[in-house]
């Protein structure tokens, strides 16, 4: 004999009871407690000092957005092709890709609460006619000053590859985005006192990739060159880019020159596994596009670096 049980009776008996809703924990006084989001207090926007006027703020925000765009595409290019692409090998040699990816990702997604951009002249360095800005170093480790000259000379990323620009023959600070990428790496929040200047100029960058690639992935200039080159080739002028050719007269790592100071550096033995780093370059002469301002800033310890 078949026995049937009404469906309503099954539900009434609780056979298919829904799970109980979890309620926030409450103290004896009846107040409930909600767990804060894991990233509560994060700073997601770049900080700009109130010394910057409205137009300076607008240009800075656009330049910083360009810096993020360059860094993000550089990261995406490496994630797509690993350390085997022609562009990667040119700038980073046979070094593993994780460090380069991380250095770009910090600019894209890192907390921005410990990096301040200002437009006044607290250290007096903007009085020097060819200075576009400077990291404040020991005066204020988390601050960078952008001098007036930058606002009248830096180009937007939309002009990449225009007006005769080439990656090899022009200044890395021709564009506000790449200039600010460089300045971000000076601040500990993004460079972590690890991203440094080991190569001098485009020829020196390629040389470092060939002879000491373990340092290329945290060389400030190389990180800029790679980001500009792959954005030009992949996005600005797809499949063509504007790489240019090496200027044989440009200073390499062995022969840096500067109007501020001169520090001789040389690559170590030709191996990517070298543990002894090349001496960071602390000064260098401008080369390439002459319309871009000479870009000088002070490193920790008082060394002046001009690009």
How are the secondary structure elements laid out?
Elements: H1 7-12, E1 25-26, E2 32-33, E3 47-48, H2 54-81, H3 86-92, H4 98-109, E4 116-118, E5 133-135, E6 143-146, H5 148-153, H6 176-186, H7 188-191, H8 201-211, H9 213-216, H10 220-236, E7 296-298, E8 304-306
Provide a descriptive summary of the structure in words:
The chain has 307 residues and is of the alpha/beta class. The chain contains ten helices and eight strands. The chain has helices spanning 7-12, 54-81, 86-92, 98-109, 148-153, 176-186, 188-191, 201-211, 213-216, 220-236; strands at residues 25-26, 32-33, 47-48, 116-118, 133-135, 143-146, 296-298, 304-306. It has a four-stranded mixed β-sheet. Strand 5 and strand 6 (143-146) form a beta hairpin. It is globular. The termini are far apart. Residues 248-275, 282-293 and 297-304 have low confidence and may be disordered.
Radius of gyration: 26 Å
Oligomer: single chain
| Helix count from the secondary structure assignment | 10
Query: How much of the polypeptide forms β-strand, as a percent range?
Result: 5-15%
Compute the separation of the termini in Å.
95 Å
Class inferred from helices and paired strands: alpha/beta
Which spans have pLDDT < 50 for at least 5 consecutive residues? 248-275, 282-293, 297-304
Mean pLDDT score, rounded? 80
Largest sheet geometry? 4 strands, mixed
- H/E series, N to C? HEEEHHHEEEHHHHHHEE
* Secondary structure: number of strands: 8
Helix content: 25-40%
Instruction: Using the alpha-carbon principal axes, give the shape.
Output: globular
Q: Walk across the major sheet and give the strand order.
A: 3-4-6-5
């Amino acid at each position: 004999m078949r026995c049937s049980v009404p469906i309503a009776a099954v539900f009434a008996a609780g056979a298919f009871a829904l799970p109980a809703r979890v309620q926030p924990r409450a103290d004896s006084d009846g107040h409930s407690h909600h767990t804060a989001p894991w990233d509560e207090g994060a700073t997601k926007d770049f900080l700009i000092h109130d010394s910057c006027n409205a137009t300076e703020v607008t240009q800075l925000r656009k330049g910083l957005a360009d810096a993020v765009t360059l860094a993000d595409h550089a990261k995406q290019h490496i994630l797509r092709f690993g350390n085997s692409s022609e562009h990667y090998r040119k700038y980073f040699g046979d070094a593993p890709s994780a460090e380069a990816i991380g250095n770009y990702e910090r600019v894209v997604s890192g907390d921005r609460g410990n990096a301040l951009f200002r437009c006044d002249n607290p250290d007096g360095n903007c009085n020097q006619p060819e200075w576009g800005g400077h990291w404040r170093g020991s005066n204020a480790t988390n601050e960078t000053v952008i001098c007036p000259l930058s606002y009248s000379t830096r180009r937007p990323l939309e002009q990449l590859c225009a007006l005769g620009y080439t990656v090899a023959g022009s200044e890395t600070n021709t564009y506000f985005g790449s200039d600010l990428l460089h300045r971000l790496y000076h601040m500990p929040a993004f460079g972590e006192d690890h991203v440094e200047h080991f190569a001098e100029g485009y020829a020196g960058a390629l040389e470092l990739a060939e002879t000491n690639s373990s340092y290329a992935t945290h060389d400030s200039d190389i990180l800029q060159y790679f980001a500009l080159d792959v954005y030009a080739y992949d996005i600005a002028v797809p499949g063509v880019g504007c790489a240019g050719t090496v200027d044989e007269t440009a200073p390499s790592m062995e022969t840096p020159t500067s109007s501020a100071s001169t520090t001789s550096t040389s690559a170590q033995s030709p191996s990517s596994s070298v543990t002894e780093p090349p001496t960071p370059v602390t000064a260098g002469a401008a080369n390439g596009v002459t319309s871009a301002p000479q870009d000088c800033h002070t490193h920790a310890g008082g060394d002046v670096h001009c690009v």
